[in-house]
Amino acid sequence: MTRNKEKLIEEFNELIKSNTEKLLKHKVKELHPADLVEILEALEEEKVKKIIDLISTEKLADILAEADYETEHKLLKFLSNIRLTKVLDAMYSDDITDLLGALSIGQAKALLKLIKEEEAELIQQLLGYDEESAGGIMTTEYIAMKEEKSVKEAIQKLRDIAPDAEMIYYIYVINERKEMVGVLSMRELISASPDKQVKDLMNQKVITVDVNLDQEEVAKIISKYDLLSVPVVNQQGLLLGIITVDDIIDVIEEEATEDMYKMAGTSELGLTEESNIVLSGIIKRLPWLLILLFGDLLSGTVIRNFEGALESVVALAFFIPVLMDMGGNVGTQSLTMVVRGLATGDLSERNIKAHLFNEIKVGLILATILGSLIALIALVWQGNPMLGLVVGMAMFCTLITAVIGGTAIPFIIDSLGADPAVAAGPFITTLIDVSGLFIYFTLATIFLQRLM
User: Fold this and answer.
1) pTM score > 0.70 for this model?
2) Strand (E) positions, 317-360?
3) What is the pLDDT of residues 128-175, one digit of tens each?
4) Do residues 317 and 310 touch, judged by C-beta distance below 8 A?
5) Do domains 3-128 and 277-451 have the same CATH topology?
6) Closest CA to 166 of 138, 186, 145
7) Among candidate residues 273, 137, 157, 267, the one with its CA nearest the CA of residue 211
8) Residue 170: beta bridge partners?
9) CA 315 to CA 301: how far, in whole Å?
10) Which of 165, 235, 280, 431 is at a distance of 20 to 30 A from 268, taking alpha carbons?
């Protein structure tokens, strides 16, 4: 928690305690919705109840759009149907869809009854799309013009519909069948001659996304072409909605968070008031840990199979943690670069060979340096040149294996259509632990007579 946030929460607590409604109302009015969300998240429900009536309808709509699942539930408790109707009226369709998608079926149906019939039908259609697809994150509040309209007519229409549109920087041009035929910017429209037609100004090369395209792919397109929004169309080319850059920022954060959880061998902990936090944490993490437990048992099996070498030269045990940790570290570094590259589109099947070759070159240099260093340490520490050689060679081979595994495995998983992030962290580490121990003890067995 930042100091500024702590200070604000403390200030709100004091204002509520002193019951100075006028000052509290002024403070609520001057704060940005995103700041209010953080404060409402931190305050107890009794205090939230005192604040919520002081928030304007428009700001409350923005707060619900910004808030997480838990805070939404906290706020909805204190909103009457009359006030909630007004708040939903002030929200954009994609934000209402997100809100309804986080509620139970019964709660969602109850809220839909508070929305105008025409808008409710539209929101039900949006709810029908996969929540991680272009259709699931698009908004239907956009500006579209018929191609035969004059600039004068278009500007007049713009004055009428702009207040309800989420994005006004682009004007999408459609024909009589509502097919996308072009796009023009607000600047192009207002700087053109009033008598010109929209079709004479529009750019016919429009970047669009299919309604079923995954949200991560949409994010790549918006990032690649530096767009503020992108139109969503169906297979017939009909304009269905738009996705704005602020929604894409949320998608990028969501996808990055999801990948981080996967790389840690866990999944996001979704909490509701009814859920048991401890039980939820166990259910989310235990399956991954059980899989990894059996993987780690393989390491024990390798050591058992070479227990003769270990009993003969006890000093071999001193270097097991170093080899396992360094292999895991190097493998995770290579893996992270690949997973990130695949996520951003910088890496693909076309350049896997080039990237793997470069990683092997880097790995060879790292393995030579680190292998030589650990060999020298083993020699000085134990006074056994052959032990130094075995440890150094094992480190060299383990690091090369780690680089190849950390680079190749995500590509293989991606080519099979699965998420490469699942290959991360614990899985790669376990794999490298087993292979590293096998390499180490195989070398130790080969040179056993000289080690003793």
Assistant:
1) no
2) none
3) 888 889 998 898 888 888 888 999 998 888 888 777 777 778 999 999
4) yes
5) no
6) 138
7) 137
8) 185
9) 19
10) 431
Report whether 261 contacts 238 (CB < 8 A). Answer: no
What's the token pair of residue 113?
Answer: 């009854």
Sign of CA dihedral 419, 421, 427, 428: positive
Q: How far is CA 27 from the centre of its chain?
A: 33
DSSP for 114-140 reads: TS-HHHHHHHHHHHTS-TTBHHHH-BS
The CATH class of 277-451 is: mainly alpha
Question: pLDDT tens-digit profile of 272-326?
Answer: 444 455 666 666 667 666 766 776 677 777 777 766 666 566 777 888 888 888 8
Name which CATH class applies to 144-263: alpha beta
What order do you get walking across the sheet with 170-174 strand by strand?
A: 144-146, 170-174, 180-185
Query: Topology of 3-128 in CATH?
Result: MgtE N-terminal fold (1.25.60)
Radius of gyration of the chain (CA): 30
Amino acid at 305: N
Tell me how long the chain is: 452
Name the residue ranges covered by the structural domains of the chain. 3-128, 144-263, 277-451
> Which residues lie below 8 Å from residue 432, measured CB to CB, with a gap of 6+?
324, 327, 328, 331, 398, 401, 402, 405, 406
Residue with tokens 């790549």: 220
> Token pair of 415, please?
């080519």
